[in-house]
Amino acid sequence: MPVPPSLTPEQRAQALIKAANSRRARAEIKAKVKTGQMGISDVLILAKTDDPIAKMRVSELLESLPGVGKIRAAAIMERLAISSPRRIQGLGIHQRAELISEFKPINHRGRLLVLSGPGGVGKSTVASRLRAASDNFWVSVSATTRRPRNNEKDGEDYFFLTEEEFENRISKDDFLEWAQFAGARYGTPREGVEKALSEGKNVLLEIDIEGARQVRTHSKEAILVFLEPPSWEDLVSRLEGRGSDTPERRAHRLELAADELAAAKEFDVILVNDRVEKVVKALVSLAT
Ligand code: 5GP
User: Fold this and answer.
1) What is the count of structural domains for the chain?
2) pLDDT tens-digit profile of 54-66?
3) Whole-number mean pLDDT of the chain?
4) Ligand 1 pocket by Cβ (under 6 Å)
5) Are 121 and 92 in the same domain?
């Protein structure tokens, strides 16, 4: 462990005053950022000549931006490979540029959030709760070749297509992504997503992991969220409680789920589905 330098009482007093001044300078700048008087690029420029600002943590700066809470700040930093203790002075050229473009108003385009995770974890419950809770979210309705379950309605829960219809849509490049899951095909119709984003609405896709990977390769703007069960036992009991699946399909889903859980590390944010309201709130805050 490093030994702290032994300071005279006078030096210690001066160091304390210097630290208090630095804190005050940082608080002033953060207050200006919070009220919109200063943008992220203004702070990055100031940090080149102002030592206390250069030493501000990047997380502190991001969290003081309007509408950016701890979760979104951490997600952005992880996506841009900025370690959590990093200070402004330690940012590389590309990281600075990426941070500036992250917060540039892009024609008020909405944000694209992808909610993924193992089958049975409760993504569709979260998606429908979000649809009801937020006017500013458009939840995409996917197309699928699987049969409707009990109360599912065509056009509301899914667009239920035949294999031929699905194939036809693929050939017309109608899907933003599509994947095979447990013997059926699922795809996100591209048009609705593009329209909603261009109208400034935030969009949620509730899709499997393979689909999320495809979105990542095509879209830099997407925020990938992984929904995790509170425990493996919880996931097993959810899948086993699903009376609408055949025993073979349920066994297949459990096998898949074990692999799917390992994919969490590829995502920008991991949310544990212990309370649906908590997850919905976190999604809303990621999009603001
Ligand atoms: P379920 O049959 O239980 O409704 O859905 C099975 C899996 O397909 C779930 O993991 C669900 O998230 C995923 N899924 C639903 N819609 C889409 C989609 O449009 N694309 C992809 N790739 N997966 C989807």
Assistant:
1) 2
2) 999 999 999 999 8
3) 90
4) 119, 123, 142, 146, 177-179, 181, 186-188, 206-208, 210-211
5) no
Dist. CA 81 → ligand 1 center (Å): 29
Distance (angstroms) between ligand 1 centre and the Cα of 143 equals 9
DSSP state of 245: S
Q: Please state whether the predicted TM-score (pTM) of the whole model is above 0.90.
A: no
- Going by C-alpha positions, the residue among 199, 73, 75 that lies closest to residue 135 is 199
**Whole-angstrom distance, CA of residue 276 vs CA of residue 122:** 9
Give domain status of residue 224, yes or no: yes
28 and 140 within one domain: no
75 with 206, same domain?
no
In tens, the pLDDT along 179-191 reads 998 889 999 999 9
- Per-residue pLDDT tens over the stretch 121-161: 999 999 999 999 887 899 999 999 999 998 999 999 999 99
* CA-proximal residue: ligand 1, atom 14 (nearest): 207
Domain boundary among 102, 122, 141: 102
Distance separating alpha carbons of residues 234 and 80, to the nearest angstrom: 33
Contact (CB, 8 A) for 187 and 169 = yes
What amino acid is encoded at 263 in this protein? A
Shared domain check, 118 and 41: no
The range of the structural domain enclosing residue 123 comes to 112-286
